[in-house]
Amino acid sequence: MRNFTLLAFLIFSISNFAQIKGTITDEKGNPLPFVSIFEEGTYRGTTSNEQGQYQLQVKEIGKNRIVFQYLGFKTQKITVSPDSKNVTLDVKLVEESFALNEVVIDPKNNPANAIIKSAIVNKKENSDKTGRFTADFYSKGMFKVKDLPKKILGQKVDLGADMASNLDSTGSGILYLSETVSKIAFEKPAKLKEKIIASKISGNNRGYSYNTAALSTYDFYDNTLDFDVKMISPIADNAFNYYKYKLEGSFYDDNNKQIYKIKIIPKRDKEPVFEGYIYIVDDSFAIYAIDLDLKGYRMKNEFTETMSLTQSFSYNAKNKIWSKNAQTLSFTAGLFGIKFSGNFNYVYSNYEFPASFEKKTFGNEIVSFEANANKKDNAFWNEIRPIPLTIEESNDYTKKDSLLVIRKSKKYTDSIDAKNNKFKVWDILMGYDYKNTFKQYSFNYQGLLNIASLSFNTVQGFNLDSGFSFKKENEEKGKSTSIGTTFNYGFSDERFRATGYFSHKFNNINYATIGASGGTKVAQFNSSEPITKLVNSVSSLFFKDNYMKLYNLEYAQVNYSQDVSNGVNLFAKVAYEQRKPLFNTTDYSFFKRDDLYSSNNPLDPNDFTIAPFEQHHLFKTGINARINFGNKYISRPDGRYNFKDDRYPTLTLGFEKAFAASEKKYEFERIGASLQYDLNLNNKGTLGMNFRAGKFFNAENIAFIDYRHFNGNQTHVGTTGRYLNVFNLMPYYANSTNDSYLEMHLEHNDNGYVMNKIPLLNLLKSTMNIGFHSLAIPDRKPYTEYTIGLDNLGFGKFKLFRVDYVHSYQGGVQQNGVVFGLKILNALD
């Protein structure tokens, strides 16, 4: 009943508004895109689309004047004759005449500097005026691709049948088009509540768009703006450290306010800075408009070429507030000759500026959807949409929405699946996929020659995986079920091993998931697997280094996890494990064939006869709680989607117990905790922290497998983007403990704050990392590491490398080394 009442109210409200529409051009007849149009003295407004077309809802024709405002053109105010409820009004705008007083511009007397200084002094007052508001919000986003090839680096580009049909013969077209209409409440610095009334995605009848106000708030009154890095506002407190300014002229708007047009010029090219223009109002020194560009390399995003951000503000004489009425964000990007572009338009209207909000206005839920928000028909959208669709957008909706019924039909999906599911003889060797799109299940067979799984270790020699998997989904209810098995064969130990798993997720609300797994496999003594199969294979075959220490594990496990409250996730498991020692079975390598591998004993790499532990079995149970403080989430009819609040840390608490072992000495208890936090230092980078601590009980004679092992690295190769979970020069098992431990990792990435200022080195477009790592355990001197290095290294758009110099110290023993970070290896392994 409540939803029916709301819908009726919306329809009634729309029907009581009049509509003014038309096309806006310059004097030569060229359409003007993104012109701000609003009703004078109100906060009802819109913008024109790329073809200069607009439509504006007003309460009553003839009662007020309509304002047309566009950067570089004179503002026009037009009173519309009250002849009907729907009026067509085409407007021609005249270019603005900028006046520049005769002043001597020199470094010591630059009028632009004086204006910017005044804007900085007054920005808190101007920011506070719009620090608390409610508004109607509209967004439209489009993402396009041009010249998409059929293959990249020899691999077929598979967008899926639905997506591929959106492109023409040249591989160009609209990949994504979406709109939302919502009501928002906002309070600085970061409180937001958004209720989405209507949401639409071209060719998607679910239509839960991610175009939200939460992802489009860019406030130049703040010192920094959050893109891929913290970009420096042209009126930041320290803006003169980053920018030079030039007054290019001034003009008077329709309120007889003098507006200064100031060019923004970066002092250093590689800094996180904007370039373009900022328009400042005289007297109040509020922002009148923004017209700025962002270069991809300045954001440390090499794939983005240029991003443009424009904002326009309108003045309300009643409350003397300049408020943002429109924003446009567009970008171009490229890779492998493919061009991507996007354009996102935002309209803010019907502002109210309350003195305060009710206590429960804001909470952890930042976005919610009205029931049936994605079910609004075309008539509703044609009435409420503030920015008219372009011909291209209208055709995209028409084409994709008409094809949607066909593509979702069983006949169509079965025909596409039948084509893709054809079985070929060589699929026995190379693998096979089967999919039933209509019933939402799929089957995968990895093939007998699953080359991607090929690896080498001294226990199995070369070994290869194969296996089967099955997955069934229900997108509407958020359910999914997966079943699979993996077969592994070692060519040197001539042993076949197999594992299987089952997993079922019940919903997308609390993400309750139950799982079971079991079988036989080789496992690393450190269950965190500090050395990957690929890195170990290269280390062994090329350098005759044997770092991966393995044992045979036969196990059966049941686990369950779910979100028990906002930001709190629990994971519990119980498992049976039988452990058997393993020995080297091969001495093969590509090089250094006269050298010997170390043994498979992590306690004594030179002992080839004594096992590191005796064969035994036990049961283990454990429970872990992960707490994301300040967790935010979006509520959609199909699920709840969590967003970690970066202002707060993540805390993990754990308890583990071994019981019913083959011998009492193998039983123990362990408690542990970890705290991860990223301290945002604005334009000075990010300080990452990871603290871990734990304590064993009744563990004097437990198996070495159950010790607390720490992630060392003896390969001098880093495989992760950050080193907050690894000691870069520490041997893998040199400091393992069955007692208490305290582990600390600190790493500061300057995001270019230092490197951007160093001549020549700034050409690398790199970032500097400084790290400190420490480990404290009883009866042993602490282990410490200091690191300094460069990240974001590479060629062209591919910044995949990192180099660090590392100095370590423990008990009088010092080491120095260089770690080469190859972040792509983590994805390939």
TrEMBL record:
Keyword Mitochondrion in annotation:
no
Identify the InterPro entries for this entry: CarboxyPept-like_regulatory (IPR008969), DUF5686 (IPR043741)
Which Pfam family, just one, is annotated for this protein?
CarbopepD_reg_2
Tell me which domain of life the UniProt entry assigns to the organism this sequence originates from: Bacteria
- What Gene3D superfamilies does UniProt report for this protein, alphabetically? Carboxypeptidase-like, regulatory domain
Identify the stretch annotated as signal peptide in this record.
Answer: 1-18
Keywords in alphabetical order, please.
Answer: Signal
What name appears for this protein in its UniProt entry?
A: DUF5686 and carboxypeptidase regulatory-like domain-containing protein
